[in-house]
Structures are given as C-alpha cells and as structure tokens.
Design brief:
Blueprint lengths: L6 H8 L3 H8 L7 H13 L6 H8 L4 E6 L5 H16 L3 E6 L4 H13 L4 E4 L9 H8 L4 E4 L10 E4 L1 H14 L5 E5 L5 H16 L9 E3 L7 H13 L6 E4 L2 H14 L7 E5 L5 H4 L4 E4 L2 H17 L9 E4 L2 E3 L9
Length: 342
Amino acid sequence: MFKPITIKDIALALDLSASTVSRALSDSYEINPETKKRVLEYAEKNNYKRNPIALSLKQRKSYSIGVIVCEVANSFFSQAIDGIESIAYKNGYNIVISQSHDSSDQEIMNIQHLANRSVDGILISLSAETTNFDHIQKLHGAGLPIVFFDRIYDGLATHKVSSDNKKGAKMATQHLINKGYRKIAHLANAPHLSITKERLAGYQEALTENGFKVDPSNITYCHHGGSSQKEVDTAVQYFLSMKDKPDAIFVASDRLSIGCLTALKKFSGNNYDPAIAGFSNSDVLDLFKSDFSSIRQPAFEMGRVATDLLIQLIESKYPVHEYQSVVLGTELIERIKSKPRN
C-alpha cells in the first residue's frame, strides 16, 4: 500500500529535527542555505507533498483559489485556466472552477459558494449580465483577495489583467479596410462590459482614421454575450435585412463569432458571404469559415499573471495599497483575402 513521505521521514533520513525540515520546506530565513538545499532536493526526489488539510488547520488557509469564468468550453477561458493552473500548482494551491454561463445570478451564487468553501482568493472574469457589483464589493471589503482578468470592474481597488482590446479591435477593422471592405458592421457583446467598450472604441477609431463615418445602425449588441443563439440570430438577421448589407463584420468575442457564423449559414444561403474578423482563440472556427481572420489574446499568459498577482495578495504579510493594471498585447491572424472587384 502506498504511503506518502512525511516531514518526520525526511528528518530521520537527513538526521535533522522535524521543525528544521518544516522550516526549510517553508523557505524560512532561519535555515541556512545548505540545509535548505538538502531538504528540498530530498523532498523533490522522494515526491514529498505537503498535507493541505494539516496546513490549513495550522495556518488557517485552505490553499485553494476560486476561479469564475463564463464558460470553461470557451477556448479563451480554457487556455486561461491552463495558465492559472500552471502558477497555482507550482505554489501549492488547488483551484476550484465555477461557470457563470454569463448569468449574474449564477455568478452571485458561485462567488458566495466559493467564499463559504473558504478559498484564499478569487480570480473572476465578469458575466455579460453583471451590472451590480455588491456581491463582489462585500467580499472584497471583508478582506477576501480578488483579482479581475479579461472582463474587469474598475470600481474595485485591486489587481486587473486584460488584453489590449482597443488596439486588437483597431487591427481587425483596419485589416478589413486594407482588404477592400467598406461597409463594416460590428457585432458587439453586452454594452456595459469593459471589453465591449474598449473593442468598440478600436473599431470606431479605425473607421474614423480612414475617413469612414461611424454609423450606429451598423452596430448591434448581444446582451447575453452569445449564450443565446436566438439573440445572435436576431442580430445577424438585422444585418441581412439592410438594403445596403455590410460587406464585412467585426465580431467582438469567441462565442459571438461561432454564433455569427452559425446564423449566417442558417439564414443567408449562398447569396451573402461577408468577410468576418473577430476576437477568437479557437481553431474550431476554421471548420465554419476557412478565411476567418482573428485577434488572438494571450489567454495562457493572462491566467498566469492574474494568478501570480492573486497569490501575492494572499501571501502578503502587510496590507496592499498599490495595485497593477496589466494590459497584454494581442496578435492578428490574417486569413481574409482581398475583396473581389465587381
């Protein structure tokens, strides 16, 4: 029967006291570097894992981090979770993942459940429906460390990690213009989200700088963030109903991109095939449309950075009053061909 190695086993093998081994494993300054090195090397060689239950009882910590995202199946969030795990596990933390499905009610239930499970901190990307932040402010005010990533809330004094949404949107729109498209519509996420405002600004800036008028009638919002295909269908049918149909569409998110392509296939037949560019970290879209140009976010890195900042908050021995707003760059994957001349 397998029996995991303990601190007492390490102490016996190295002829040290259990307290010395314990302090060495905790990276205490009280232990000389040579002893610390011996202990850590022996522990790693023999696959020592600290007992999270014993540690939580001793230190009043659960060594767990709560993560709230809209949907794990979303390529962006699955990649971000990989980044979160890479840092969390390295630092001895487990993660507990919850999905809001872009529902504010579900988000409230999730965050309360995680707090009741005594997680040491929470990483959150807001749901498309969240407009009231009392549930987050209450827990933050009670001392629970919280870090936002991707979809952030500026009203809370904490770390925030996002991508350069404005620049990414501007690159996508400029790419469509460079390929010869002139009437570019925008399928946007819920209007109150931080990412929606930033991506709208980039879209508008690209149009303006190229001498095009920003026409509000070419912009449609999906308040449920693409979780309702019916809502996306309605938005795409609106574009199809226009007398002068858009020759290109800039789409604001992964889920909306899939919904948009699904709706176009369903309603447009072969008579209407606009160029599509949008934010997406998914390769599945190639199955829908091989010439889909995409803005890719550094999802894995975003997860890593957010988790590192959260652990710093959790483990800080003093109150933290200075916070970082980290903005990561995006990449344009070009697949759209130039618009055919009539």
